[in-house]
Structure formats: structure tokens, C-alpha cells
Specification:
The chain is α+β, with helices and mostly antiparallel strands and 230 residues long. Helix content is 19%, strand content 27%. The protein has five helices and eleven strands. Bound molecules: the ligand Nc1nc2c(c(=O)[nH]1)N[C@H]1C(S)=C(S)[C@@H](COP(=O)(O)O)O[C@H]1N2 and molybdenum atom (MO). Molybdenum atom binds next to loops.
Amino acid sequence: MSPAPPISPLPPGQRARPDFPRFGVTRFAQRFPREVERIALDVGGDVAQETCLSGEMLQTLPRIELKADFHCVTTWSAQGLRWSGFRYREVHDRFVVPLAQPRAGAEFVILRGQDGARTSLPLTDLLADDILLADRLDDAPLNVAHGAPLRLVAPAHYGYKSVKHLSRLEFWPDDRHFRPSGFRFMDHPRARVASEERGRIFPGWLLRRLYRPLIGPTVRRFAQALKERR
Ligand SMILES: Nc1nc2c(c(=O)[nH]1)N[C@H]1C(S)=C(S)[C@@H](COP(=O)(O)O)O[C@H]1N2
Ligand SMILES: [Mo]
């Protein structure tokens, strides 16, 4: 008898999907990045010097391969995705700190995508080992559906923290400059999967029930918009 392949147990409230659908807040289904080839990552906010990081700069860092499950807050999970890219901590230490010089205490980080989507994470969360700026998925360059040319990958956080088409990082002392992509109750400042931080105000078990019926229609809408993209 051969042993069964190991299957990582899913976190509370999650269900496995066989595919990895294009997904997000409905408003962004029809929005696409303008630049899908060339990486340009602006760094600003409360910094000494606005800076733009290029793909060439990132390529000087060690390339990291990361196999991870992806957990959308609406309860679907895609298992065993193989990302490739650069550890955010290395990008931070090697480029962000020396070039942009975020001011002391500017540790509320806003991440923006070319499509206008945005999220936030505390700097301490972003510096974790498993946070990547990925430019490849499953042995191929990242496609438009999944975040070309560069996306954040934060596997311990719900999917909405993993901003696609990442174009700008901002360092601020607090959340004054941040407007969430969706409704405020949907946005948790950390959104850690293990502690089921799906959103604020409402408990995880309630948000599961609220979100689950939205999965089917949202997947279809995002797929249709991608097909009609010109
Ligand atoms: N730029 C951008 N990033 C985004 C989104 C988006 O609409 N635009 N949706 C978020 C949500 S809610 C999820 S679940 C994941 C989905 O990633 P995927 O489309 O690669 O499956 O991307 C996140 N990052
Ligand atoms: Mo999501």
C-alpha cells in the first residue's frame, strides 16, 4: 500500500476549490492593469525620498520559491500554489529603507494595485518570512488574471491582503490615508487566517454565511470580464 499524499488541513470555515479563480470585490472585475510586463513599484508616504523600484533591482535579490495555500475571505481556498519571487523583507532591507527612508513609526503600510484596489498591513506582518512579491506562479510568469506583473503573496492572511498588479507602497504612522477597497466592515487590519480575522465588527462564522453565496456569481463575473477585456 502506498501512503496517501499529505493534504494540509484547511483553516476554520474554508472549503477547497479545484481551480484558482480570478476574484475580488465586484467593482474591480472590469478593471485591468495598464502595464503587465514592466515592474515599477513606487514607494512613498511618510518617507524622506519618493522612490521607484524596478524589476531589475528586484532581480538582484535571491529568488524564493514558496508553495502555499490561498484562502479567500469568502471561504474558498486554492491549495498547493507554487509562487516564485522575492521576499518582501529583503526588498525592504535592501531597497525601501536605504532609498526611501520611511520615517520612524511609519509602520502602517498601504499597498495599491494598478486597478485601483488597495489594502493595508502592519509593517511587522509584512516582514514575515512567507511574504513575497511574486512575479511567477506555477512555473510561468504571472498572468493578468492573477496579478501581472507583480503581486503580494501573504499566505497567512486572507486573500484580500494579496494585492495584484502591485504598483505602490505607502508608509504612514496611522490609517488616516487609507480607504478600504470594499466596505469598512469587510476590512480587518491584519486578517490572519489562523485566527479567522475575516473582518471587523461581525464574527467569522457570520461573515462565512454572508459571503458564501457570493462566490459563484463573483467567479463568473470576473471570468466574463477577463474574456471581454480588450
Ligand atoms: N489589484 C487587486 N488585487 C486583489 C483583488 C483585486 O480585485 N484587485 N482582489 C483580492 C481578493 S478579494 C482576492 S481573494 C485575491 C484573488 O486573487 P486571484 O484573482 O489571483 O485569485 O486577490 C486580491 N487582490
Ligand atoms: Mo477574496
